[in-house]
């Protein structure tokens, strides 16, 4: 196991969404994925239930099936008004960034089925999701998913947090034999990345979003 020399702040600020730079031709050892998941399992969960399950897809045929669903959903998304490429059209600087994001979304959509490892985290929640506030449910899964992404970054792997396939969650569940009562929370393509490293992304100033004591 090789861990990159990243201090905590650097790890947290340079774990980026990787779409264009995923290495589609280099195999990722299952042992490396297991190491990342061992880290993920240390994340908190409500009442320590640990109701998560992790589906790691490496079979080429299975990846292609899931990838085709993701490709179709990506096409629909990019054609919609919700597309990242169409956001902030009245802000020239930010619009330029958003168009680049849209292009990278398109590239990943075309290649999802070729990514060496697809990770689908699931949570046990019964046949139907609970009504009302679901923060407790997803709060018992998503921190672990982010821990996986951080662990992957520390080991020289790139990931992308995606959810477009959830529009057809039942179809993906059928492909992967995910039993009823388990709900998918994301789809993370995982691969080595091309290029050298990553840097922090531009973000809005903290004072634009910070509220102290009152809104």
What does this structure look like?
- The protein has a domain at 13-59 and 115-196: NADH Oxidase (3-Layer(aba) Sandwich), CATH 3.40.109.10.
- The protein is built from seven helices and five strands.
- The protein has helices at 8-14, 30-40, 60-79, 92-111, 135-138, 142-154, 169-176; strands at residues 52-57, 117-124, 157-159, 182-184, 188-192.
- Strands 1, 2, 3, 4 and 5 form a five-stranded antiparallel β-sheet that branches.
- Helix 3 runs antiparallel to helix 4.
- It is globular.
- The termini are far apart.
- The model has no long low-confidence stretch (mean pLDDT 94).
What is shown here, in short?
With 215 residues, this protein is of the alpha+beta class.
């Amino acid at each position: 196991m090789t861990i990159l020399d990243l201090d905590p702040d650097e790890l947290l600020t340079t774990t980026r969404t990787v779409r264009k730079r995923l290495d589609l031709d280099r195999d990722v050892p299952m042992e490396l994925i297991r190491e990342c998941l061992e880290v993920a399992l240390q994340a908190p969960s409500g009442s320590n239930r640990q109701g998560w399950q992790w589906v790691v897809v490496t079979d080429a045929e299975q990846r292609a099936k899931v990838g085709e669903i993701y490709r179709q959903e990506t096409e629909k998304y990019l054609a919609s008004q919700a597309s990242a490429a169409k956001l902030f059209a009245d802000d020239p600087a930010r619009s330029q960034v958003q168009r680049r994001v849209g292009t990278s979304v398109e590239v990943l959509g075309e290649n999802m089925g070729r990514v060496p490892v697809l990770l689908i985290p699931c949570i046990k929640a019964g046949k139907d999701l609970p009504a009302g506030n679901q923060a407790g449910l997803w709060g018992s899964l998503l921190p672990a998913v982010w821990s996986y992404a951080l662990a992957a970054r520390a080991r020289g792997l790139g990931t992308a947090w995606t959810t477009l396939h959830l529009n057809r969650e039942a179809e993906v569940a059928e492909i992967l034999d995910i039993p009823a009562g388990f709900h998918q929370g994301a789809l993370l393509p995982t691969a080595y990345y091309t290029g050298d490293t990553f840097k922090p992304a531009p973000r809005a100033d903290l004072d634009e979003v910070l509220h102290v004591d009152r809104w």
